[in-house]
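Quick question, first post here. What does this chain look like in 3D?
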Amino acid sequence: MFTKPQPNPCGGSHQRTIKPSGQRLSDSLPLSLVLGLPPTRAYSGVKATLQSFRANDLLGVAFGVVHAGSGVSYVGYNPGVVSIGMPASLPQPLRATTRALFTVLATSVPKATGPMTALLDDPPAEPFTAHWGKRRLPLDGRAFDRDNALRLHKLTQELIAR
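> Answer (accepted):
Ran it through. Tokens below.
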């Protein structure tokens, strides 16, 4: 998460927040997290990671609803596959396969951070937006469902209060 203080025309400052957004990768995952149900079968680290992207997207939507008019924006940003050192930590043969895929598909760190920097320098006025690289995503469909977002927000608040 990245935050940058922004001048507030009413005095003081507020934060603009950018978090990763996995909207397209996680669209097909079940909403067991939103429904408050424990996993009913084994899951992999990849599925857990994709589910966390989904939760971030939904919590971003909820933030925009709950904090509308606050002067704070929540910006979901997913740079896509970025060329980092992650493959080195994987076991073989997954390491070799991932390195090969990163060579072909991954974006460099400077290229991936450019759109994020632009969003920090000139943040959207809306309370929540989602971006995949330079492309702004529509906030429709299951990944950004308002009712599911507010339900997850409520469940999260209940867990925090425990």
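The mean pLDDT is 79.
The radius of gyration is 17 Å.
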